[in-house]
Design brief:
Specifically dimethylates two adjacent adenosines in the loop of a conserved hairpin near the 3'-end of 16S rRNA in the 30S particle. May play a critical role in biogenesis of 30S subunits. Keywords: Cytoplasm, Methyltransferase, RNA-binding, rRNA processing, S-adenosyl-L-methionine, Transferase. It is found in: Cytoplasm. It contains eleven helices and nine strands. The chain has helices at 15-24, 42-50, 61-70, 72-76, 107-115, 128-135, 144-150, 190-202, 208-215, 221-224, 233-240; strands at residues 11-12, 32-36, 53-58, 80-84, 97-101, 121-127, 154-161, 166-167, 174-180. A seven-stranded mixed beta sheet has the order 4-3-2-5-6-9-7. Strands 1-8 form a two-stranded antiparallel ribbon. The chain is elongated, with a radius of gyration of 20 Å.
Length: 243
Protein backbone atom coordinates (compact mmCIF):
# COMPACT_ATOMS: atom_id res chain seq x y z
CA UNK A 1 0.00 0.00 0.00
CA UNK A 2 1.27 3.46 -0.92
CA UNK A 3 1.27 5.89 1.98
CA UNK A 4 0.05 9.49 1.65
CA UNK A 5 2.51 12.30 2.36
CA UNK A 6 -0.41 14.74 2.20
CA UNK A 7 -2.07 12.98 5.13
CA UNK A 8 1.22 12.67 7.01
CA UNK A 9 1.05 8.88 7.10
CA UNK A 10 3.95 7.27 8.95
CA UNK A 11 2.87 3.87 10.21
CA UNK A 12 4.35 2.64 13.48
CA UNK A 13 5.82 -0.82 12.86
CA UNK A 14 7.92 -1.41 16.00
CA UNK A 15 5.87 -3.75 18.20
CA UNK A 16 8.06 -3.01 21.20
CA UNK A 17 7.13 0.67 20.99
CA UNK A 18 3.45 -0.25 20.50
CA UNK A 19 3.56 -2.43 23.61
CA UNK A 20 5.12 0.37 25.69
CA UNK A 21 2.49 2.88 24.53
CA UNK A 22 -0.21 0.50 25.73
CA UNK A 23 1.61 -0.02 29.03
CA UNK A 24 1.99 3.73 29.60
CA UNK A 25 -1.78 4.09 29.16
CA UNK A 26 -2.37 1.57 31.97
CA UNK A 27 -5.38 0.11 30.18
CA UNK A 28 -8.14 -1.78 31.96
CA UNK A 29 -11.33 -3.54 30.86
CA UNK A 30 -13.31 -0.60 32.21
CA UNK A 31 -11.55 1.86 29.86
CA UNK A 32 -13.01 3.38 26.71
CA UNK A 33 -10.21 4.50 24.40
CA UNK A 34 -10.15 6.92 21.48
CA UNK A 35 -7.47 6.37 18.83
CA UNK A 36 -6.99 8.86 16.00
CA UNK A 37 -5.22 7.75 12.83
CA UNK A 38 -5.56 3.97 13.20
CA UNK A 39 -3.60 3.25 10.01
CA UNK A 40 -2.99 -0.47 9.59
CA UNK A 41 -4.23 -1.21 13.12
CA UNK A 42 -1.00 -2.23 14.86
CA UNK A 43 -1.76 -0.02 17.87
CA UNK A 44 -5.50 -0.67 17.61
CA UNK A 45 -4.85 -4.40 18.04
CA UNK A 46 -2.93 -3.77 21.26
CA UNK A 47 -5.62 -1.42 22.59
CA UNK A 48 -8.34 -4.01 21.93
CA UNK A 49 -6.41 -6.60 23.94
CA UNK A 50 -6.50 -4.51 27.10
CA UNK A 51 -9.35 -1.96 26.96
CA UNK A 52 -13.08 -2.57 27.21
CA UNK A 53 -13.97 -0.54 24.13
CA UNK A 54 -12.02 1.30 21.42
CA UNK A 55 -13.20 4.07 19.12
CA UNK A 56 -11.04 4.68 16.07
CA UNK A 57 -11.14 7.66 13.73
CA UNK A 58 -9.54 7.13 10.32
CA UNK A 59 -9.67 9.46 7.32
CA UNK A 60 -8.12 7.26 4.61
CA UNK A 61 -10.74 5.05 2.97
CA UNK A 62 -8.13 2.40 2.13
CA UNK A 63 -7.25 1.98 5.81
CA UNK A 64 -10.93 2.00 6.78
CA UNK A 65 -11.52 -1.04 4.55
CA UNK A 66 -8.42 -2.78 5.89
CA UNK A 67 -9.50 -2.15 9.50
CA UNK A 68 -13.06 -3.31 8.83
CA UNK A 69 -11.72 -6.64 7.58
CA UNK A 70 -9.03 -7.01 10.23
CA UNK A 71 -11.32 -6.30 13.18
CA UNK A 72 -14.60 -7.66 11.82
CA UNK A 73 -15.29 -9.73 14.95
CA UNK A 74 -14.54 -6.85 17.33
CA UNK A 75 -16.79 -4.55 15.27
CA UNK A 76 -19.63 -7.09 15.33
CA UNK A 77 -19.21 -7.49 19.09
CA UNK A 78 -19.37 -3.71 19.57
CA UNK A 79 -15.90 -3.64 21.08
CA UNK A 80 -14.43 -1.60 18.22
CA UNK A 81 -16.28 1.31 16.65
CA UNK A 82 -14.63 2.70 13.53
CA UNK A 83 -15.47 6.25 12.46
CA UNK A 84 -14.49 7.30 8.95
CA UNK A 85 -13.65 10.98 8.72
CA UNK A 86 -11.40 13.91 9.59
CA UNK A 87 -10.57 13.92 13.32
CA UNK A 88 -10.65 17.72 13.34
CA UNK A 89 -14.19 17.81 11.92
CA UNK A 90 -16.12 14.77 13.13
CA UNK A 91 -17.76 14.63 16.53
CA UNK A 92 -15.67 12.72 19.06
CA UNK A 93 -17.35 10.01 21.14
CA UNK A 94 -17.10 9.90 24.92
CA UNK A 95 -13.86 8.29 26.15
CA UNK A 96 -11.73 8.25 29.26
CA UNK A 97 -8.36 7.53 27.63
CA UNK A 98 -6.83 8.87 24.43
CA UNK A 99 -4.05 6.74 22.90
CA UNK A 100 -2.79 7.63 19.42
CA UNK A 101 0.06 7.90 16.96
CA UNK A 102 -1.41 11.01 15.38
CA UNK A 103 -0.80 12.54 11.94
CA UNK A 104 1.87 15.10 12.77
CA UNK A 105 0.55 17.93 10.61
CA UNK A 106 -2.59 18.22 12.77
CA UNK A 107 -0.74 18.01 16.11
CA UNK A 108 -1.47 21.55 17.28
CA UNK A 109 -5.18 21.70 16.40
CA UNK A 110 -5.79 18.21 17.67
CA UNK A 111 -3.97 18.82 20.96
CA UNK A 112 -5.97 21.97 21.73
CA UNK A 113 -9.17 20.03 21.02
CA UNK A 114 -8.06 17.19 23.29
CA UNK A 115 -7.05 19.49 26.15
CA UNK A 116 -10.55 20.96 26.31
CA UNK A 117 -12.19 17.54 26.61
CA UNK A 118 -12.97 15.49 29.70
CA UNK A 119 -10.65 12.48 29.98
CA UNK A 120 -8.43 10.71 32.51
CA UNK A 121 -5.22 10.21 30.57
CA UNK A 122 -3.70 10.61 27.12
CA UNK A 123 -0.65 8.91 25.64
CA UNK A 124 0.29 10.47 22.32
CA UNK A 125 3.05 9.99 19.77
CA UNK A 126 4.21 13.38 18.50
CA UNK A 127 7.00 14.63 16.30
CA UNK A 128 9.93 15.17 18.69
CA UNK A 129 10.20 18.89 17.94
CA UNK A 130 6.49 19.40 18.69
CA UNK A 131 6.74 17.42 21.94
CA UNK A 132 9.68 19.56 23.06
CA UNK A 133 7.65 22.71 22.33
CA UNK A 134 4.77 21.28 24.32
CA UNK A 135 6.87 20.83 27.48
CA UNK A 136 9.23 23.83 27.08
CA UNK A 137 9.44 26.31 29.96
CA UNK A 138 11.57 29.00 28.30
CA UNK A 139 13.65 29.76 25.21
CA UNK A 140 13.01 29.43 21.49
CA UNK A 141 10.81 26.32 21.76
CA UNK A 142 8.65 27.96 24.42
CA UNK A 143 5.52 29.55 22.97
CA UNK A 144 1.74 29.80 22.99
CA UNK A 145 1.38 26.02 22.94
CA UNK A 146 3.70 25.56 25.95
CA UNK A 147 1.89 28.16 28.05
CA UNK A 148 -1.75 27.39 27.22
CA UNK A 149 -1.26 23.63 27.61
CA UNK A 150 -0.23 24.13 31.25
CA UNK A 151 -3.57 25.76 32.01
CA UNK A 152 -5.25 22.47 31.11
CA UNK A 153 -2.82 19.69 31.91
CA UNK A 154 0.43 18.27 33.22
CA UNK A 155 2.55 17.01 30.33
CA UNK A 156 5.69 14.88 30.26
CA UNK A 157 7.85 13.26 27.57
CA UNK A 158 8.18 9.55 28.38
CA UNK A 159 10.63 8.54 25.66
CA UNK A 160 11.99 9.47 22.26
CA UNK A 161 11.40 7.11 19.32
CA UNK A 162 13.79 6.80 16.38
CA UNK A 163 12.57 7.28 12.81
CA UNK A 164 13.33 3.60 12.05
CA UNK A 165 10.23 2.62 14.06
CA UNK A 166 8.00 3.91 11.23
CA UNK A 167 7.20 3.17 7.59
CA UNK A 168 7.71 5.14 5.50
CA UNK A 169 10.59 6.41 7.57
CA UNK A 170 10.07 10.09 8.49
CA UNK A 171 12.89 12.64 8.40
CA UNK A 172 12.57 13.33 12.13
CA UNK A 173 12.41 11.39 15.38
CA UNK A 174 9.26 11.18 17.49
CA UNK A 175 8.35 11.27 21.18
CA UNK A 176 5.79 9.52 23.35
CA UNK A 177 4.06 12.04 25.61
CA UNK A 178 1.73 11.50 28.57
CA UNK A 179 -0.93 14.11 29.29
CA UNK A 180 -2.91 14.23 32.54
CA UNK A 181 -5.78 16.74 32.89
CA UNK A 182 -4.31 18.30 36.02
CA UNK A 183 -3.60 22.02 35.37
CA UNK A 184 -0.10 23.18 36.31
CA UNK A 185 -1.28 26.77 36.67
CA UNK A 186 -4.46 28.38 37.99
CA UNK A 187 -6.30 30.46 35.40
CA UNK A 188 -9.40 32.40 36.47
CA UNK A 189 -10.56 33.51 33.02
CA UNK A 190 -9.43 31.24 30.19
CA UNK A 191 -10.57 33.61 27.45
CA UNK A 192 -8.48 36.51 28.81
CA UNK A 193 -5.54 34.21 29.47
CA UNK A 194 -5.51 32.81 25.93
CA UNK A 195 -5.91 36.32 24.51
CA UNK A 196 -2.86 37.56 26.42
CA UNK A 197 -0.73 34.56 25.45
CA UNK A 198 -1.80 34.74 21.81
CA UNK A 199 -0.95 38.45 21.62
CA UNK A 200 2.39 37.94 23.37
CA UNK A 201 3.65 35.19 21.09
CA UNK A 202 2.37 36.73 17.88
CA UNK A 203 4.85 39.52 18.70
CA UNK A 204 7.50 37.45 20.47
CA UNK A 205 10.37 39.72 19.36
CA UNK A 206 8.72 42.69 21.03
CA UNK A 207 9.46 43.55 24.63
CA UNK A 208 6.66 42.58 26.96
CA UNK A 209 6.08 46.18 28.04
CA UNK A 210 4.94 47.10 24.51
CA UNK A 211 2.59 44.13 24.38
CA UNK A 212 1.08 45.02 27.77
CA UNK A 213 0.66 48.63 26.69
CA UNK A 214 -1.24 47.53 23.57
CA UNK A 215 -3.58 45.45 25.73
CA UNK A 216 -3.98 48.24 28.28
CA UNK A 217 -2.63 46.41 31.31
CA UNK A 218 -0.12 47.52 33.94
CA UNK A 219 2.78 45.17 34.56
CA UNK A 220 5.73 45.22 37.00
CA UNK A 221 8.74 47.24 35.85
CA UNK A 222 11.02 44.19 35.85
CA UNK A 223 8.86 42.55 33.16
CA UNK A 224 8.72 45.47 30.73
CA UNK A 225 12.06 44.72 29.07
CA UNK A 226 11.58 40.95 28.97
CA UNK A 227 10.65 38.98 25.84
CA UNK A 228 7.57 36.71 25.99
CA UNK A 229 9.79 33.61 25.83
CA UNK A 230 11.19 34.53 29.26
CA UNK A 231 7.82 34.98 30.99
CA UNK A 232 6.79 31.89 33.04
CA UNK A 233 3.30 30.38 32.53
CA UNK A 234 2.19 31.28 36.06
CA UNK A 235 3.06 34.95 35.42
CA UNK A 236 0.94 34.95 32.25
CA UNK A 237 -1.90 33.52 34.37
CA UNK A 238 -1.60 36.27 36.99
CA UNK A 239 -1.29 39.07 34.43
CA UNK A 240 -4.35 37.84 32.52
CA UNK A 241 -6.44 38.74 35.59
CA UNK A 242 -5.71 42.41 34.81
CA UNK A 243 -7.44 42.30 31.43
Amino acid sequence: MKFSKKLGQHILIDRGVVSRISRYADLKRTDTVLEIGCGTGILTEQLLKHAGKVYGIEKDRRFVKLLENKFLNEINEGKFVLIEGDALKVEWPEFNKFVSNIPYQISSELTFRLLKRRYELAVVMYQKEFAERLVARSGKKYGRLSVVARAYATIKILEHVKAEAFRPRPKVDSSIVIIKPIPEINVKNMENFERLVREAFSSRRKKFGKIAEKLGIDIPEDLKNERPERIPPEVFAKLSERL
